[in-house]
Amino acid sequence: MKLREWIRPAAVLLPLLLALGWRLWLRGVYYGWEESDYGNLAMIRGVLDGGFRHYDMNHMPGYYGLSALLLVLVDDTVVAARTVTLVGGMVAMALSLVLTLRLAGPLAALLSGLLLAFQPEFSLYSASSLREPVYAAFILGMLYALSRERMGWAGLCAAGAFLVRFDGMFIFTPLLLFHALGSGPRPSRVAWALAPLAGVILLWSSYTWVDHGTPFFWSHSVEVNVETGLGEEAESPLAWLARGAQVSGALLAGLLPSRIGWGPWAGLFLTLGTVAWRRHGLERTWVLLGVLMLGFWAAVGFIGQHSPDHNLYWKWLCPIVPVILPLGVSGLLRLSRRLGRLSGPLGALPGSGMVLVVMLLALWGSARETRRQVELSVQLYKPQLDLARWVEAEVPEDLPLLLDNIPACWIDRRPHRRALHSWFDVPGEGDPAAFAAWLRAERVGWVLWFVEDWTQAPVAAPFLAGGGSWRGEGVELVETQREDGYGWILYRVRRLDEGPGDG
Fold first, then answer.
1. pLDDT, tens only, 224-241
2. Which pLDDT value is given to residue 225?
3. Alpha carbons 380 and 403: distance in angstroms, whole number
C-alpha cells in the first residue's frame, strides 16, 4: 500500500490507539465521577441476581443489562462494567472519526481524534463505570446509519440510546423525522426511522407501569432534578427566567469552551453558520444533532438551574463531545483555508499557525482539567473505597452495619452475607432514643455518618455531627475514622450491657 493510501486509515487508527492507552492508564488513577460509578456496580449485580427482570426506572435498562450479560461470562462486576463503558467510548470515538474522515478529510479526523483522546469528560468517564459513553456510541451509530440512509438501523440505534438514557427521545425524534423527510415526503422512511424508537418507548412505559406502578417513567427523575436545582429560590417568574438564562449562558459560553477548547468552540459556531441547510446529507443532519444535543443540555440547565459549576453538567456533556468536537475542528480548518487564500504566496502559514496554537491550547486545557478531576476523585471518593475494602477485610461478615453510598455499593458488587442498612431504614428522624433502640435491635456494629442532607444521615442522627463519642440508651458510638472533604465519620458501636463490640 502506498503512503498516500495509509493516510486515511491512519488518521482514524492512530488516535484510537492513543485513546485506548490513555483510558487504560486512567483506570488506575481515577476513582470516579461521583457515587454513580459505584452505584452502577451494585445495580448491575442486582440485574443479574434478579434474573434480568428488574431494572431501576430512573436509570433505564440498557447499560445495566449489557453489563450484566458480560458479568455472566467474567464473574467480576468491576471488569464487566468498565469493559462495557470502555467499549462504548471507543466505538463512539471510532464512529465519530470515520464520519469526520468522510465529511472533512484525514486532517480533520486526525486533529479531532487527538482532542477526543484526551478530552476530560469523554476520556475519564470512558475509564469508569458510567453509562454515558455507551449512550454516545448509540448516538454516533444512529448518525452513521443516517449518513448511509439506513433508516431502520438508525431507528434501532435511537432505540438503543433511549434504553440507556430516556431523555434522548426528545433529541432523536425530531432528528429522525427531519432526516427522513429531508429528501422528500416519503412515509416509509419516516416509519422505518421512528417505529423502533416508538416501540421501545411503549414497551418500557408498559414495564414501568407493571413493575413500578406508573407508565410515566420520566416523572421521578425530572422531579428530583428540578427539586435539587436552584429554580425554586427565585422570588418571581421574571427572576426564574433570568436565573435560567444565566445558567444556560454560563454552560454554553463558559463551561463548554473550557472543556473543548476556545478554538474548537469558535470553530463550532463557524460550522453552524456556514452549513447548507437546504442540502440533504451528512453535514446538515450532523449539525442538527449537535444543535439539538447542546440545546437540550442548555435547556436542562435553564429549567433545573443547578449551579453552572455542578458536576452533573460534566456527565451530561460527555456524550455531546464526540458529536460537536469534529464540527468545531472542521470549522477551524475551513477558516484556516480561507486565511490561506487571502494571504498570498505564504498563505498556508497564518492558517496553519492558528490551528497549531489552538490545538496546543486545547490539549493543555484538557490536561489541566483531567488532572483536576483525577485529584478530586482521589480526595473525595478514594477514601470511601479504601474504607469499603477495609470493611471487607476486617469486619466479620455476620456483623450488621449501617453503611451507605460508595462503601455499601462497593460491597454489593458481588454476593455476600452481610446485613447492610441504609440511613433511610433508620426510624425516628432525629430522636436519639429511637436511634439507640434501633441500633440495639438490629445489633449494628459500625455506623457510617454523612454530612450531606440527601444521604438522610443528618436527618436521622444530627447528634452525630460533632464526631468523638456519643452515648445513647444501652449503646456508645466512638469515632474511629473521618474524612472532612466529602464529609463522613465512621463510628464503632459498643453495647454498654455487653462490653466491647465485635469488629
1. 666 655 555 666 888 889
2. 66
3. 17
Cell of 268: 463550532
User: And the C-alpha cell for 419?
Assistant: 446485613
In contact, 355 and 333? CB cutoff 8 Å: yes
Residue 26 CA to residue 39 CA, distance in Å, equals 20
What angle, rounded to 10 degrees, do the helices at 262-274 and 321-342 form? 80
CA 395, CA 455: separation in Å to the nearest integer? 23
Q: What residues pair up with 475 in beta bridges, in sequence order?
A: 472, 495
Q: Which amino acid is at 230?
A: L
Alpha-carbon span 452 to 462, nearest angstrom: 11
Whether the CB-CB separation of 261 and 322 falls below 8 Å is answered with no
Whether 343 has a pLDDT exceeding 80, the answer reads: no
Find all residues with CB under 8 Å of 454, minimum gap 6, and list them.
Answer: 228
**What cell does 133 get?**
459513553
Rounded to an integer, the average pLDDT of 260-274 is 94
Look up residue 395 and give its three cell numbers.
469486619
CA distance linking residue 294 with residue 260, whole number of Å: 13
Question: If we measure between CA atoms, which residue out of 112, 147, 68, 490 comes closest to residue 333?
Answer: 112
Residue 307 makes CB contacts below 8 A (sequence gap 6+) with 230, 247
What predicted TM-score, i.e. pTM, was given to this entire model? 0.93
Q: For the chain, how many residues are written? A: 503
What number of other Cβ atoms are within 10 A of residue 26's Cβ?
Answer: 18
Separation in Å, CA 115 to CA 15, 321, 419 = 9, 10, 46
Distance CA 492, CA 503 (A): 8
Closest to 111 in 3D by CA, of 406, 352, 412: 352
Separation of alpha carbons 81 and 129, rounded Å: 5
| Pure H helices in 27-168 | 36-49, 62-74, 77-104, 106-118, 120-126, 132-147, 151-162
The per-residue pLDDT for 502 is 44
C-alpha cell at 391: 470493611
pLDDT grade for 304, boundaries at 50, 70 and 90: confident
The pLDDT, as a whole number, for residue 144 is 98
Buried b (16+ CB within 10 A) or exposed e, 171-203: bbbebbebbbebeeeeeebbebbbebbbebbee
Residues 6+ apart with CB under 8 A from 154: 142, 145, 146, 176, 179, 193
